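Researcher: I'd like a structural prediction for the single chain below. Treat it as a standalone chain; there are no partners to consider.
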Amino acid sequence: MTGDEQGQRRWLAINAGSSSLKLAVFDAAGNCRHSCAAEELADGDAPLGSAHARALDELISALPTSDAGPFEAITHRVVHGGERFHAPTRIDDSVIEALHEIEPLAPLHNPIATACIEVARERFPETPHYALFDTAFHKDLPPASRNYALPGWCREELGIRRYGFHGLSVANALRQLADATDHPPQRLNLIVMHLGNGASVTAIRGGHSMATSMGMTPLEGLVMGTRAGDLDPAIPGVLERRGGLSSDEVDHLLNHQSGLQGLCGTRDLREIHAAIDSGSEAASTALSMYIHRIRHYLGGYLVNLGRLDALVFTGGVGEHDPVVRESVCEGLGVMGLALDISANRRNIGGPRALHQPHSPAGIWVVPADEEREMIQQVRALA
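Model: Treating it as a single chain, here is the predicted structure.
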C-alpha cells in the first residue's frame, strides 16, 4: 500500500445512545477527521430505534465526500453483550440474531443499536462491521461484586447478575490516563466516574474492573438524569399494588421520569444550578442527593481498593461541571485526595490534573471518547 493510499484509509464509529446518535470518521493516523451528532431522538408510536435509524441514514448521507467511505471497518457501540459477547465482534447474521435474543437484558438500548447496525450494513454491505460492548470491560468482575444474593438458578437460568456499563468510556479513560501519567494500565488503581445523563462509578484494580455501580441493567446505582438508581427492591411492587401501575409503567417511571427529572423537573445540571441560585429547595435537594450517592460509592470503592492512584471524572457533567467535582471531592483530603480549587475551575481541553502538588492520589478530568476507543480496539485486532 502506498503512502497516499495509507493516508486515505478511513474508519467509521457509530455511537447510538438512548436519545442521541454520534458519528466519527478517523484516518489511519488515528485523527478524528469529521464528527456529527443527532440529539433528542424519539420514536413516538413507531418501533424503538426508528428515529435513530432515520437519523443515521441522514448523517451518513451528509458525510463530506472525502470522509464518506469506503471504510476499512465500521464500529458500533452496543450497551449489553449478555453472557456471550466479551470482545469486539465482527457482525454477521448470526450475531444480529444473538443481539435480538439478549434484548430483554437491555430493552431500552440494544434494539436501538441493532436498528443502526442494520441501516449501516445496508449502506455499506461490503465493509466489515464490528460490535463493541459496554459490558465487556466488566467481564472479569470478581464474584463478590458480580453476583446478587439470590438463589443460583436466578443467575444460571435467567442471567441475573451484575454486568456493568459505560465500559467503553471507562476503558478510554484508563487508556488516556495511562498515557498522561506514563504508567502502564495494568499498574493503575483508579476510580472512574462517568457522569452524564446516565452515570456510573467504576473501581479499577491493576487495569481491570473490580466493582461498578450499574448492575444487570443501567438503572442501578447513581441518581441519574431520568433514572432513579438504587431503590429498595420492594418499591416496584408497591407502585404496582398500591399505585395501580403496570410493570411496563413502573419500568417507564424508573427509567424516564425519575432521577433529577423526577426530583426537580429537569435533568440538566445547568438548569439545576440556576434554580438553586434562585432559591429552589427542590433543586438544592436534588443536587444534594446526586452528590451524596456519588460519594457513597466513592467511599466504598476507596476502602475496597486500598491503594488509589487517581480519581477520574469523565462524561458531560464530569468534564464540564466544576461545582459537582468540588462537591464530590469536599473533605477528601484526609483520604489522600486534595483538590486544587483553581485548577478545578479552569476550563481547558484534554486530560488535565486537578489535584494539589502534595496530594497522594491524583484527581483528573479526562474527556470521554467512546468513538476513538472503539476504533482503537478494532484496529488492535489486525
